[in-house]
Design a protein that fits this description.
3 strands; single chain
């Protein structure tokens, strides 16, 4: 070249190849995987400042490796983690839904239980009242029957007593008249007529004797 500037060639290891024409070694500087090349000349007075950005094989390999690394991390690491987080979120949501459903079911069962208890108590109360009414009715019926039986028995006994009394009075009438006749005869010493002694008088005398 007219400016006597030659570009340095880079090998695959990133080292600078030395030219064979004896020119001075170009200064180089690596920055972030890139090599900055400055041109040089055997004549310092004619050296011109300038730069050229050259992409070598190492940079390409690094970029490709980084892209592959990102893709692999996305598939191997971030993808499964995202899937695990999604499944965990779904599992937590499912458990919350099941817990809420179980709570609602428990509330429903508790409400049904309270209603059943209330209905059972009401039925027991009604049944108890019904049994008490039936027992009272049966008791009243038994008392009425017993009272009727006692009344009939008393009437029957009264009738029996009255019949016995009447029979006894009839028997006593004859005995009284005989006693009166015998007493009168013993006192007077002679037979007397009992025509004036009527059965009514005898009965009154017997009744007075009963009252006493």
């Amino acid at each position: 070249m007219n400016s006597e500037t030659q570009n340095l060639h880079l090998n695959t290891t990133g080292t600078v190849a030395q030219p064979d024409n004896g020119h001075k070694e170009n200064s180089s500087k690596e920055q972030n995987g890139c090599v900055l090349i400055k041109s040089g000349s055997s004549h310092p007075e004619k050296q011109e400042e300038g730069g050229l950005l050259t992409i070598n094989g190492t940079l390409v390999v690094i970029v490709i490796s980084f892209i592959v690394f990102v893709i692999l991390m996305q598939k191997i690491f971030y993808g499964p983690i995202t899937e695990i987080r999604r499944k965990r979120h779904e599992y937590i949501k499912k458990m919350k839904d099941e817990a809420n459903e179980a709570f609602r079911e428990t509330e429903k069962l508790n409400k049904d239980y309270q209603e059943n208890i209330k209905d059972a108590r009401k039925k027991v109360f009604e049944k108890t009242a019904e049994l008490l009414n039936e027992a009272n009715e049966e008791k009243n019926k038994v008392l009425e029957d017993k009272k009727q039986q006692n009344s009939e028995y008393l009437d029957e006994q009264k009738q029996i007593i009255q019949n016995d009394k009447t029979q006894a009075i009839e028997e006593l009438k004859g005995q009284v008249m005989d006693y009166a006749y015998n007493i009168s005869r013993k006192i007077l010493g002679e037979d007397i007529s009992m025509a004036g002694l009527s059965p009514e008088i005898v009965e009154k005398a017997i009744n007075k004797a009963e009252v006493r």
